[in-house]
Amino acid sequence: MTIELIEALKAEGVTVKADGDFLELSPAEKITDDLIQQLRTHKPAILAELRREERREKVLRMLAENPNTQRIFVTDTKSDSNSVILTFAIRDQYTFEMLIPQEKYDAFLLLELIDKAQIQ
After folding, report:
1. What is any Pfam family matched here (predicted)?
2. For the whole prediction, is pTM greater than 0.85?
């Protein structure tokens, strides 16, 4: 339902952005009471989806800016209070996310594992 709602809003010409714990919507004249109720009902999931897409766009942009790099990842330690979210992009292949419990996250070990695996 969340992705469908975001896509329906975009199709109607409504811009939806995450701004911290708030949803930023424009233009104001397209915001109805029914829409506000739907957004309130699904707000946490909408924010999570918008943040996920922001992370994905960030790693893809980083790959575009670094043509000799085959893989990029970013960490998000703020979106989930229990997990570190890793967003990976592998050139010409795919993007994906991993959730690692914060108490088990070790950035140096992660870099070592990626290097050993030689993900291309």
Report:
1. TubC_N
2. no
* Tens-place pLDDT, residues 5-52: 889 888 889 999 999 889 999 998 888 888 889 889 999 999 999 999
Find tokens 């909408």 and name the residue.
Answer: 46
The count of residues in the chain is: 120
Q: What are the pLDDT digits (tens) for 108-117?
A: 998 888 778 7
DSSP letter assigned to residue 28: G
- Domain spans of the chain, in order of start: 2-117
CA distances (Å), origin 58, targets 2, 3, 11, 52: 21, 19, 23, 10
- Cβ atoms of 6 and 16 closer than 8 Å: yes
The one-letter amino acid at 39 = L
CA-nearest of 105, 84, 21, 89 to 53 is 89
